[in-house]
Each structure stands twice: as structure tokens, then as C-alpha cells.
Amino acid sequence: MKRRNWISGGLALVLTFSLAGCRLAQPEWAASGLDEFIGFYLVYEDAFVPPSEQYEATSWVSVGNVFTGTKYVLEGEKQEDWSYTFGDLEGLDFFFPSYEPGHTHPTGPNGEEEPCVVRLSESEIQRTEMNQNTSEAGTSYTCTGTVYVGPVLADSGAADTSWVMALYPVFQRRDRSIYLTGDAERVGGSGGVTIGRSAEMTASLNDQAESQAGLEVSVSIEWTQRLESVTVQQYSGDHALLREDVLTQGEALALDGEWPLPWAEGAAYTLAVKRYTDGTEQFETFPEPYEEDIAAPLMVWFLDERGMGVPVTVTLEPLNEQEA
């Protein structure tokens, strides 16, 4: 597997810590030597405290050898909703594991049936692009997303800490289990920064290259003002207000990331009115097409007391789901 990292953007502070308190060597292979890089796990943490002092040491496991180098890893645990947790490390998913759904396709060299492998999307941030390119050489994926940070909450203890966004690389083993490693890229500042990594895996048969699979993942970290509330307004075709719902900052942080709303019968379009603590307002329409039998989602970003972005997906439930 070949990989490269890149960082671009404006003002930023980039720090790299290992769990041992110093920077580890960057081997060509991941911890096991055969595992595939699949994305990042984003954590907002203290800039001056290495992970070894922030989290329970028993949750991290040292793996590797003299050939691959030593890594500290944290195992991912799949939840019922197919999301993942990593011990008590709280963060946002942005990784893309492979999965075999159980059926096959005639894709072998001689037309024989081979297991079908699909690339899942475990994304809790605003994905701005996800492309797939398939050729005779193999299939490659490009995934880019955006996460938001902003000012700390006034008169909170969070103001005494220097916060940075840590991007922990996530890997997948051949048995489809996943884990992250402790050598995170840590970025502080006022946003305008993009961090990325690409990887290539080559499958071989009888010492001959058979196919290549590539994955390129990048995350942009952007600054935003503190959102006070969002008002969802549904209008008829003649611009009459049919329904209005308001979500405040406190209510948003108590949610599990979803805010479903009933679709107003006869609604032709919907506006989200975002009101910020600095007195400004921003208007945004829900994604088109807007149809009564298709859910219309929109992601809005609130900030916790640290200034870490908390995404909330606002969904207008189709009429057929409401009736069910």
C-alpha cells in the first residue's frame, strides 16, 4: 500500500503526537503491515496534552514489530446502526470501510464469480464530494468533506484550553474489522486548512499484479460563527407560510444528530433561517428536488462550549412515512 499525506490552507498550527509522547516513525505499511487506510476519525482535544495523558491507557494497544514499526491502536466497535465507536474517544466519523454484502458478480479473469465488495460511507461531517472511478486497473475513490470550528462559549471553562482538531487515521483489516492509530495530525487556528491522505492497495495472484484499489480522503477545517438557532419554514407555491419549527443551540446539542420534521402538505419549498450570536442571519434552501415522497435533508452546524462543530441533519419526513 502506498500513501501520502498533504496539508494545505492558511493560518494553522499542526502538531503530531504519539501515545509514547514523541513522534513515531511513519512506516510504509499500517500497524499490521497489510491493512488499508480508509479515512479519519476527528476529535477536538487539548493542544498541549498528548493522547496518552487524555485517555485511558488500557484502551490503547501497542502492535507492530521491528519491520513495520510500533503503533498504538484503538479498536473500532460496530454499533447496531453500523456506526463505530472507539472506546471513550468522542469524535466524528469520516471513513469508508469495504463490505461484502454476500452476493457475487462475474468479475474474475475468466468470467468466474467473485464476491461483490462495496465501499460504505461512515460520514458524520458535511461531505462535499464522493467520486468513484472504475477501470481495468481497479476502482478508486475520492472523498472530501468539511468540518467546522468556531469561538468557545463565553464564560465557560473551555476558554482556558487551547483546542485543536485531531485527525486520527483509520484502517481496515482483511477480516473487515477497523481500528485507528494514535499518530494523529493535529490542527489549530482559525480554519481554512485541508488535510488529506491517499492510499493504494494492490491485489496479486501468482506473483502477478491483478488489480489496484485506491482511496483518497481529505478534510477541510473551516471557521464559523456560533449558531444561536435555526428556523425551518415551509411555504406553498404562492409563498404562504404553512409551517415553522425552531431549533435552539441547547436543544440541538441534546439531540443525537437528527432533527426530523413532518412535511407540510402542499409545501413547494423550504427555507432554513440560521441566526448567529453576532446578530447576523443566513438563509438556505433545502436541497432540490423537493418532493413529498422523498426525504429532504439539510445539515446545519452548531458549536459546543469548546467551539467544536456539532452537525445536525434536519430531515423533512415524506408524507407516506408519516402515514405509516
Q: Could you walk me through the main structural features you see in this protein, from its secondary elements to its overall organization?
A:
The structure is a single chain. This protein has helices spanning 51-54, 249-253, 319-323; strands at residues 2-9, 13-17, 36-46, 61-65, 69-75, 77-78, 84-85, 92-95, 98-99, 104-105, 114-115, 118-119, 122-123, 126-135, 138-149, 163-172, 178-181, 184-188, 193-205, 208-223, 227-235, 241-248, 258-262, 269-276, 281-285, 296-303, 309-317. The chain is mostly beta strands. The protein folds into 2 domains: 2-223, no CATH class; 227-323, no CATH class. The strands form 7 sheets. Strands 2, 3, 4, 5, 8, 13, 16, 17 and 18 form a 9-stranded antiparallel sheet that branches. It has a 5-stranded mixed sheet with strand order 1-19-20-15-14, with no helix packed on it. A hairpin with a 5-residue loop joins strand 16 and strand 17 (178-181). The termini are far apart.
